[in-house]
Each structure stands twice: as structure tokens, then as C-alpha cells.
């Protein structure tokens, strides 16, 4: 509801939470509508930039989404379990599960678009229409057409992060790791933490890791012979991901976390988070994997 052009204040729409209050304020509340969790700290300059922007956007959404803020200096446990390594970081929860998010201070238009992705559609600009057409071309198997469309988008907006990420991933999908790196370098340095850019960077790192691994059959034999050979199981997860067997890769890492959370300095969980970043938050394997991880950590 708007009053004199401004969103009316709604009790409980924005609040602070604690480690103890997280389950009620976030997990339980997200069963009713999406809940955004803003991880911040008093010393964080970008956090102070984001706060008024995200609060305004949440109020404008008219109760379709809530905002919960968590000071990680006072309450570090939840952010640590979710793999939050830089702030500000915003994670969206729905039906008790983390489903989307972004890092870094974002302009009002991007925060609004993020919220509308959760609760309703948003009208795209010309470059975004070209990017959407490129994604449709990719889905139809037309990589060359997608590449041309991404190129047109970059002509309109040379620093369009979606077009840079899409074109870089196209090169990566053909095995051109160096070409993918070169295109990714076109992104402005201050946007290095953007979700789309970070996802492609993570995918490139995974491709480089997988290139050094052998055939999955040998790794599978090692795991079958000794289920507690966590290094073999870890390497197998990397190799399976390289072959686009994402659910199997997730299951192997979850098995390590369940058996020995401390193995390799919590390496299995960290690798799983890198998978999610590379795949994107809305990928089916990411959604399913986060659900399994969340159940394991919070049950």
C-alpha cells in the first residue's frame, strides 16, 4: 500500500535477528513469504550503502517479502555455516530453504530486480532482451546464434555483466578456458563479486581442477574399495561435475560432510558451495544440494 507515493510502514517487515532467533525469524517466516537475510557488520562501508536501498525495496514490495538483518560480528555462526565469506551478502529463503542471493552493495534497480525475481516479473531493457534471446538460442542448441546475440548486447552495454558472463561461459563450454578468462576480464573490477561473474569464475576454476583428474572409473573403484577414502570421493565429485553429473557430485560431497565434517578443513562443504556458485542459485542441482546441506546442518 502506498501513502503519498511512499510504501506504508508495516510492522515486522524489517527486523534484526540473532543466532537463536534465526529459525523463527527466517526458517519459519519463509514458509509464508520469501525472507531476505542481510549479513552485515558495523565496520562494513558497502553494508551501510546497501541498507537504505534494500529497506526501500522491501517496503515497496508491500509485504510480499521480509528483510531480516544479522550482524555477523555478534552472530557469526549462521553466516559461517552458509559459507558467507564477504559482506554485505543477501540470501533469500523460501519454504525454509536458501534459494537465491547476491553479494556486495547493489544499485536500487538491481535490488528491485532481485526482489521481483522472487515475487513477480520485471520488464527487461533492450540488452536484457538480447541476453534472454541468447539464452533461448542456447536452449535450442544454437551456440553461434547465442554468441552473436551476446555480442550485440555488449555493443549496447560494453560492461553488461550478463552478456560478459554468458559469452565467457560459451567459451568455457567449448573447452576454451583461456578464451573464457579473457572475456571475463572485461568485467569492471568493482563488479568482480557480481553473482553472474562470480559463477563463471567458479566454473572456470572447477574446469581447471577437473582437467588434472583421471578417469572416473579409477576413482569410483577407489571409493568402492574404501568408502572412507575421502580424497578419492572428493576427486570423484570434481570429475563427475566436469561430466555434468551434478547430483552425483553433490551426493559424494554430502557423504563426506556427513561422515567427517572436519575433513580437509571442512573442504567438502567449501567445494559444495563452489559448485552452487558455478551452477547458479536457481539450477536444480544447486537447489537440491542446498536443501540437502541445509537439512544436514540445521536439523
UniProtKB/TrEMBL annotation:
Signal peptide start-end: none
GO molecular function: protein-disulfide reductase activity
GO cellular component, one term: cytosol
A Pfam family hit: TPR_19
Record SUPFAM superfamilies: Thioredoxin-like (SSF52833), TPR-like (SSF48452)
Keyword set includes Signal: no
Database matches in Gene3D superfamilies: Glutaredoxin, Tetratricopeptide repeat domain
Annotated family: Belongs to the thioredoxin family.
Protein known as: Thioredoxin
Natural source organism: Bosea spartocytisi
Gene name of this polypeptide: trxA
Amino acid at each position: 500500500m502506498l501513502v503519498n507515493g511512499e510504501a506504508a510502514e508495516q510492522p515486522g517487515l524489517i527486523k534484526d535477528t540473532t543466532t537463536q532467533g534465526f529459525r523463527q525469524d527466517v526458517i519459519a517466516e519463509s514458509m509464508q513469504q520469501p525472507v531476505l537475510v542481510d549479513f552485515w557488520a558495523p565496520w562494513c562501508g558497502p553494508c551501510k550503502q546497501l541498507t537504505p536501498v534494500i529497506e526501500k525495496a522491501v517496503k515497496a514490495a508491500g509485504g510480499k517479502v521480509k528483510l531480516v538483518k544479522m550482524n555477523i560480528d555478534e552472530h557469526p555462526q549462521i553466516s559461517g555455516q552458509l559459507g558467507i565469506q564477504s559482506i554485505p551478502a543477501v540470501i533469500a529463503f523460501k519454504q525454509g530453504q536458501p534459494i537465491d542471493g547476491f553479494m556486495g552493495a547493489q544499485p536500487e534497480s538491481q535490488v528491485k530486480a532481485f526482489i521481483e525475481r522472487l515475487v513477480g516479473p520485471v520488464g527487461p531493457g533492450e540488452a536484457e532482451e538480447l541476453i534472454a534471446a541468447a539464452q533461448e538460442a542456447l536452449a535450442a542448441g544454437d551456440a553461434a546464434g547465442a554468441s552473436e546475440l551476446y555480442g550485440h548486447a555488449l555493443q549496447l552495454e560494453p560492461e553488461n555483466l550478463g552478456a560478459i558472463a554468458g559469452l565467457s561461459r560459451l567459451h568455457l563450454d567449448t573447452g576454451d578456458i583461456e578464451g573464457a578468462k579473457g572475456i571475463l576480464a572485461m568485467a569492471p573490477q568493482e563488479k568482480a563479486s557480481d553473482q553472474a561473474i562470480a559463477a563463471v569464475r567458479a566454473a572456470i576454476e572447477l574446469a581447471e581442477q577437473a582437467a588434472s583428474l583421471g578417469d572416473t572409473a579409477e576413482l569410483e573403484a577407489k571409493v568402492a574399495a574404501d568408502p572412507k577414502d575421502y580424497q578419492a570421493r572428493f576427486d570423484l565429485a570434481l570429475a563427475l561435475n566436469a561430466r555434468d553429473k551434478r547430483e552425483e557430485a553433490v551426493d559424494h560431497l554430502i557423504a563426506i560432510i556427513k561422515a567427517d565434517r572436519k575433513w580437509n578443513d571442512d573442504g567438502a562443504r567449501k567445494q559444495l558451495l563452489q559448485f552452487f556458485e558455478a551452477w547458479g542459485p536457481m539450477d536444480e542441482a544447486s537447489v537440491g544440494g542446498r536443501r540437502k546441506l541445509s537439512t544436514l546442518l540445521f536439523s
